[in-house]
Amino acid sequence: MVTIASDIDVLARFGRALADPIRCRILIALREAPAHPADLADLLGISRTRLSNHLACLRDCGLVVAVPVGRRTRYELADERLGHALDDLRTAVIAVAADRTCVDADEKGCC
């Protein structure tokens, strides 16, 4: 049973990270290449403070890691398999539900 609980926790953390469009954009950007926060903020068009909050969430979920590089910090995916998982999820959702719109959690039903 411990494995099931661990699997559920991992999926829940991954889902929590993907629940926010900015965090999705960060993960997709980091899938392409590691990046420094200032560069990510510029790329995504958001403030560094807002980016910092999202990066903290992604670190807490175990999806990204901060790597010290001299006096700066670079962020990257915690495991290269996460990039493959993001690609698989993206293509699976597109293949299955390309003609559907996801309903907000507050509304009835789900995609």
Automatic annotation (TrEMBL):
| Functional summary from the UniProt entry | Metal-responsive transcriptional repressor for the cmt operon. Binding of cadmium or lead causes the repressor to dissociate from the DNA.
Which keywords does UniProt give here? Cadmium, DNA-binding, Metal-binding, Transcription, Transcription regulation
Q: What is the lineage of its organism?
A: Bacteria, Bacillati, Actinomycetota, Actinomycetes, Streptosporangiales
Cross-referenced NCBIfam families, in alphabetical order? HTH_metalloreg
Q: What is this protein called?
A: HTH-type transcriptional regulator CmtR
Q: Which PROSITE patterns match?
A: HTH_ARSR_2
Q: Which PANTHER family match?
A: HTH-TYPE TRANSCRIPTIONAL REGULATOR CMTR, TRANSCRIPTIONAL REGULATOR-RELATED
Q: Where is the HTH arsR-type domain?
A: 4-100
UniProt cross-references to Pfam families, sorted A to Z: HTH_5 (PF01022)
| Source organism superkingdom | Bacteria
Q: Please give the CDD domains that the UniProt record associates with this protein.
A: HTH_ARSR
Supply the source organism for this entry. Microbispora bryophytorum
Sorted alphabetically, the Gene Ontology BP terms of this entry are: response to cadmium ion; response to lead ion
Molecular function, one GO term: DNA-binding transcription factor activity
Task: Tell me the subunit arrangement.
Answer: Homodimer.
